[in-house]
Amino acid sequence: MPFIRKIHKWTSVFVGIQFLLWLASGIFFNNMDHTKAGGHTYRSTQKQVVNVDSSRLVDFKEVLEKFKPSVSITPTNILGQPFYLLTHVKGLYRNFENEYTLVDAYSGEKKVIDQSFAQQIALKSYTGPGNIVSTELITGKIEDFARQKNATWQINFSDNIYTSVYVEQGSGRLVGHSDEDKRFADFFFMLHFMDYSFLGGEPGFNSLQIIIFAFVTLWLSLTGLIWTIDLGLRGQYRVKYFSKVQGVKLFDKNQKSMGTVKLSNHKNLLDGLIEHDIALPSTCGGGGTCGRCKVMISPVSTPTSADQLHFTDKELQQGFRLACQHFSTDVEHMTLMDVTEAKKHALVLSASRFVSPFMKELRFKVKDEPALPYKAGAFMRFFIPAAKGVSIPLNLPENLKPHWHHIDHLEYEHLACTRSYSLAEPSTNNGELVFTVKIQTAPDHKVIPGVGSSYLCNLSLGASIDAIGPFEEFFAAPNSTKTMVMLGAGSGMAPLKALIEEQIAINEKNKNDAGGNNRPIHFFYGARKESDLLYAKEFYQLALEHEYFHYYPTLSQANDEWLGATGYGQQLLELNLDNLDSIDNLEFYLCGPQSMMTETMSLLKEKGVQESDIAFDVFS
Amino acid sequence: MSLLKTSRKYHKWLMLFLGVQFVIWSVTGAYMVFFDIDYIHGDSLIENHQTKIDSNKIDFSLKQLLIRYPDAEKIELGIFINQEVYRFNQEDEKFLVTASNGKQLSPLTESEAIAAAKHLYTGSGEVRDTELITDNPPFELSRRVYSSLPAWRINFDNFGSPSLYISITSGKLLAKRHEFWRLFDWMFNFHMMDYSDGEIDNWLLFWFTLFSIVAAVMGLILTYFRVFKKETIAAVSQDNVQGGSV
Asked: Which residue has the higher pLDDT, B239 or A422?
């Protein structure tokens, strides 16, 4: 399909304008007045009846011997007079090249069609109010009658539509009338047939340009058809008005019934379930790319390409599907594999401050609800509405402005979307939800900045936004006493910060209660510059206060004033790994960009760390 | 709703109903422009003989003709295969008479018509069958020649199943057809959505074209956004986040 779409897109660039010209000229032909378009406005329809006196006719034999050899002799009458038309060279059609002699049928004398005779013929056929203004013999191409290839008199009249009458010089045949109306129609024919023969070349509709355009158009329309069929098969043609509400029986993953919910087939299962406050995990927002909204449906319907990407053949046979790819019409029973307690909440912004030149800490309160409990490391999905955005944050503090100097001011519009952000503090009773959000700047001016981060960071205090969650997919292993090793980079410290604060609180509680074991925590944190080290002061402070907490900041683009470690977080981890604890007694929590993940995973594998001892959270 | 979103929605829905016609237009249009129109018209099927009239062979004069056919009108002297002939009308009837001895040839027999057809035909194939067309002319024959009927239809056993129509009264070639032209006629009718009477000004075509213009304009807007104004699209894919905070 992506290939089909690409062809459709680029062929439409190529033939787009011509496509409109075809349609516009087509609708013109459909509505045009045929008399006008044929140039017949001032054309006489009268037929002249001529009484030929057969006894006066010259014998053919006599005529034949007098002139050049002929293929045929045909009787004709011009202006009421009988003539013989001798054809010496016969074209396949009248407008093809022919050679004639016109002979008076009574006298046997040759009749030359001179200017005045042509004018008389023209006048006889003309019913308009004009007079002859000019007469010209055209031997080359005739614009009004492009396919006429014989020498022709053009007699021009002085009427409102500039009628021209054409009389063939050799035969006296009336080729036709042309006027502004016909020329106007011919203009549309020219556009429709791409017949630009006035620039040279043969008239007609077999020009190279139209053959190329027709060929490309074939690809355009056929890919369009395939696309439409594909849309149909994927259930993308659903009308809200006609949508049916269908009851679907739900089961949890232990096959315990959860009752029946009514779902409209106008929305996919993922979106439909949210209306019943049942949230399936999803980070892509229903695009079929994250593969998190797994359900098992019955009856088993045809899998989409997204299903095939995320499930094995065996799973597909069992009925595993992505909820975002299917509709309630497909389904009678549905087993929810992974339901989060997550619900949609309205959050109100209570504080917003910069914690680094490009990062903000945002504090929200849940509107009209008690505090949300969640495990540290959880994230929430924000519903970013369509809005106007700016590339540089509003209310940028004076001291941060130098950091934004290289960013061009840009205003843009963006569509609604969803974005997920991790909670940066553990769950507390005061009901505050804290996020650290990095404002994604655009790599170049062709791309607009991250719309989710910009939108959130420019939100004014007291403003409300919908979010769903919290989703708990990254959290501390329960009932573990192993040493915690955390590795974060950039803004990927938010969930780790929550985990650290949570664990410190537990350690402190244990200390007071029983004076028991304090789990050691090692936090490796990489950033580019010193100003990017988030909450540096707070972490230094924590390390001073608690002997079990170790903070290892490192910079990849350090300046001379930096006295600490340099390089990436994973490099610093590698250097220290052997000194932390025995490998079996380490538990890893990773959060950062894909490249950091890949490097760290292979490092840990090399060192023999069990996969069950690694928790990770990737962000892109 | 944004212009982009509106366009996508209407383009998608309109094309659900118009899409097949767009395919028909482009397939039939492509057929009509790919094939050379002179070939379609069967010009290559016909030998354009330039046999000249030999006045020495005209032993049956115009005067003699007028004596035998006193009401003859529109008398024409020409060639039929290789002999000089008179063609004329008398009281709504058409005649073909040799100029050498005044023998009346019309109406042509089947074998004479075959001879005439073979004389004109450039192909190598043999005659497969013949048919006398009087009334109920076949679809492929244009109305213009209806008045010249009856005619012999000579079908050749050749590539494209060529047929030549020879007038039974004048011996002239009335029409030539082969599969490429027959197909062209079908294509032409489908192209202008003419499923009945051969007129271009039908309402079906009008409404389809009108909606098609709307759909095509929407499509062009989509193209504009996707190709020339990428920023808005990129907005959706930038900062596509998972889990971690960005």
From this structure: A422
Indicate whether B48 and B29 sit together in one domain: no
Please give the share of chain B, as a percent, with pLDDT higher than 70. 89
**B80/B170 same-domain check:** yes
State the pLDDT at residue A609: 85
Residue B3 contacts A where some CB pair is shorter than 8 Å: no
Name the DSSP class of A283. S
Residue of A nearest to B219 (CA): A12
Peptide bond into A426 cis (omega under 30): no
Read off the tokens for B11: 């383009």
Instruction: With CA atoms as reference, report the closest residue to A489 among A549, A543, A553.
Output: A553
From the list A522, A504, A515, the residue with the least C-alpha distance to A588 is: A522
- Beta-carbon pairs below 8 A across chains A and B: 253
**Could you report the per-residue pLDDT of B179-221, keeping only the tens digit for each?**
999 999 889 888 988 877 555 558 888 899 999 999 999 999 8
Nearest residue of B to residue A237, measured between CA atoms:
B13
A-proximal residues of B, 48-67, CB under 8 Å: 48-53, 55, 58, 61-63, 66
Q: How would residue B89 be classed by pLDDT, with cut points 50, 70 and 90?
A: confident
- pLDDT at position B32, please? 92
CA-based nearest residue to B78, from B70, B86, B66: B86
Same domain, B171 and B213: no
- In the prediction, which pLDDT does A349 show? 92
ipTM of the complex: 0.84
User: Could you say which of A31, A61, A217 has the minimum Cβ distance to residue B55?
Assistant: A61
- Determine which of A20, A72, A196, A219 to mutate to test the interface with B (most B C-beta atoms within 10 Å): A72
- Contact assignment for A214 to B33 by CB distance below 8 Å: yes
The pLDDT of residue B231: 44
Q: Indicate whether B241 belongs to any domain.
A: no
- Does some domain include residue B102? yes
Helices and strands per DSSP (H, E), number in chain A? 14, 26
Distance, in Å, from the CA atom of A453 to the CA atom of A436, rounded to the nearest integer, reads 10
| pLDDT over 80 at A619, yes or no | no
The pLDDT of residue B232: 40
Cα Rg of chain A (Å, integer): 42
Calculate the alpha carbon distances from A206 to A435, B30, B158 in Å: 66, 10, 25
Report the predicted TM-score, pTM, of the whole model to 2 decimal places: 0.60
Q: Do B141 and B213 share a domain, yes or no?
A: no
C-alpha A599/C-alpha A346 separation (Å) is 39
Convert the pLDDT of each residue in A11-50 to its tens digit: 999 998 999 999 999 999 888 888 888 888 898 888 777 7
Are both B56 and B146 inside the same structural domain? yes
Determine contact, residues A205/A154, Cβ cutoff 8 Å: no
Domain count, chain B: 2
Span A238-266, average pLDDT: 75
Q: Which domains does chain A have, with CATH numbers?
A: 2-37+201-232 (no CATH), 54-178 (no CATH), 267-336 (3.10.20.30), 343-471 (2.40.30.10), 483-618 (3.40.50.80)
B56 part of a folded domain: yes
Residue A198 predicted with pLDDT over 70? yes
**Gyration radius of chain B's alpha carbons:** 30
Query: Best interface-test mutation with A: which of B10, B173, B218, B246 has the largest number of A CBs within 10 A?
Result: B246
Please list every residue in chain A whose beta carbon sits closer than 8 Å to the beta carbon of residue B78.
71-74
Q: Which domain holds residue B62?
A: 43-177
**Any CB–CB contact under 8 A between B144 and chain A?**
no
**Residues B62, B165: one domain?**
yes
Highest mean pLDDT among A117-131, A268-282, A516-530, B222-236: A117-131
Q: Could you identify the residue written with the tokens 């315990």?
A: A256
Asked which of B177, B200, B222 is the last residue of a domain, the reply is B177
Q: Nearest by CB to B240, which of A12, A205, A620? A: A620
Residue B226, chain A, CB below 8 Å: the answer is yes
